[in-house]
Amino acid sequence: MPRAFEWTGSVRKMRLRKGGRSFAYAGRVVVITGGSRGLGLLMARELKKQGARLALLARNREELMRAKEDLDGRHALAITCDVGDRAQVQQAMDIVMQHFGRIDVLVNNAGVIQVGPLQHMTYGDYHQAMNVHFWGAFHCTEAVLPHMRQRRSGRIVNIASIGGLVAVPHLAPYTASKFALVGYSNAVRAEVARDGIRVTTVCPGLMRTGSAINAQMKGRHEAEFAWFAALSSMPLLSIDARRAARKIVAAARRGEPNLTITPQARLLALLDRLMPNALARVMVMANRMLPGPESLWGNESWPGRESRPRQLPRLVTLLGDRAAVRNNEMVLTR
């Protein structure tokens, strides 16, 4: 029995070393990019419950104000900021420091999604995706690292995607930029651990955030919206984004290096490691089932909210539509 207790204690110590010491969010200052809606807003709500002081960064001022009201303005600082602009990011972080005096946690969550065939993805699409997912995270991380190093404490959470571990057809700019973010996140983690900073790389699978209505559709935009919105709304294929937010907040608190959300995403990542050639063939077959290119207007970008086909039953996207309203992705008008 004593040996059993000794072994259990050793396992617990190994887990602590693996993830770093856990800490409480009460009183901590948390900066969330893309915090005005979707997963960012859901994480903000969860962090507010745990007593965190919040700074939300986003490009859309109106969405930010609604998010601040949602959180009760006393608990959140809202800053209009394009994370792809280095100067704007530095200015935003300076405002946070002046207001709170510290930054304990950075959540790089800002994102964009372009959905469509490779033929219709332009340089601008790749530039936009890289500017938000990679350069946005880079700018924010570089802005907070000196402060965190000085205090020898901090948490950085990078919201990547299963698309950053496994390439997905019809999402080329998205998946390329998320691969870049995963690599950057893992590289930073290895080098800042000695400074007391923990970096968590998060790769969620499909989540019911309601973000399909704000995604950019290209090619046969109505058909692209139909498959994308349907898959991201199905209970058996996607996770309630509120649950995902709780998992992310908990993993960051424990300082876990990696978090892959949903069994389907974990299985896909495992298959890519064990049987990469077989999975590559599966992706080729999956691509054949997706809409083909559009010869006339394929390069035009349509917002998801304007791409819903009339023949798509509301029941198919019901959970995603409800999430869109709940998560500030869509505002109902009377």
Helix content: 40-55%
Rg over C-alpha atoms, rounded to the nearest angstrom: 20 Å
Unreliable stretches covering 5 or more consecutive residues: 1-19
Q: How many β strands by DSSP? A: 12
Number of domain modules: 1
Q: What is the number of helices?
A: 11
Structural class: alpha/beta
**Which CATH architecture would you pick?**
3-Layer(aba) Sandwich
User: Shape, please?
Assistant: globular
CATH H-level superfamily title:
NAD(P)-binding Rossmann-like Domain
Distance between the termini: 67 Å
CATH fold group: Rossmann fold
Q: According to CATH, what is the class?
A: Alpha Beta
- Approximately how much beta-strand content do the residues carry? 5-15%
**SSE pattern, N- to C-terminal:** HEHEHEHEEHEHEEEHEHEHHEH
Rounded mean pLDDT is: 91
* Main beta sheet strand tally, sense and closure: 7 strands, parallel
Strand order of the largest sheet: 3-2-1-4-6-7-11
Notes on the structure:
- By secondary structure, this protein is an alpha/beta fold.
- It has one domain (20-326): Rossmann fold, CATH 3.40.50.
- It is 50% helix and 14% strand.
- It contains eleven helices and twelve strands.
- The protein has helices at 2-19, 38-49, 61-71, 86-100, 123-151, 172-192, 221-231, 241-254, 263-274, 276-289, 318-326; strands at residues 29-33, 53-58, 76-80, 105-108, 114-115, 154-159, 197-204, 207-208, 216-217, 239-240, 258-261, 302-303.
- The strands form three sheets. The chain has a seven-stranded parallel beta sheet with strand order 3-2-1-4-6-7-11, sandwiched between helices. The protein has a three-stranded mixed beta sheet with strand order 5-9-12.
- The longest helix is centred in the middle third of the chain and has 29 residues, at 123-151.
- The chain starts with a helix and ends in an 8-residue tail after the last helix.
